[in-house]
Amino acid sequence: MSTFHFDIDSDGATTTEKVEAVDQFAAIRQALLLVSEILRDHALCDHTTICLRISVRGQDERIVWKGSARSLQPDAQEN
Q1: How far is CA 10 from CA 26, 31, 48, 59, in A?
Q2: InterPro entries from the entry (predicted)?
Q3: What is the pLDDT along the chain (79 residues), one digit of tens a residue?
Q4: Cα 21 to Cα 16: distance, rounded to the nearest angstrom
Q5: pTM for the complete prediction?
Q6: What secondary structure letter does DSSP report for 60?
């Protein structure tokens, strides 16, 4: 197992999480699941637009993956 760092920026709030994974591909899958979870939780609670960026760094500090997602506020007519 290796340690990876997830650098997360969500609407200006930043944090870093440490994750243990077998390899970089497993770490990337975990990052994608985390992005999905954050967007789902935000949609269920807030209903506002959110911009999310995440990068995955290995132990050598090299970025192995970067991704971003944006969830838009739903139309008022749809509620």
Answers
A1: 22, 14, 13, 23
A2: DUF6894
A3: 999 999 999 888 999 999 999 999 999 999 999 999 988 888 788 777 889 999 999 999 999 999 999 887 766 555 5
A4: 16
A5: 0.81
A6: T
* E-assigned strand segments in 1-79: 2-10, 13-21, 50-57, 63-71
DSSP category for residue 25:
H
Q: CB of 21 within 8 A of CB of 4?
A: yes
- Give the C-alpha distances (Å, rounded to integers) separating 22 from 9, 17, 53, 57, 66: 24, 16, 23, 14, 19
Q: What are phi and psi of 11, to 5 degrees?
A: 50, 45
Phi, psi of 78 (to 5 degrees): -80, -15
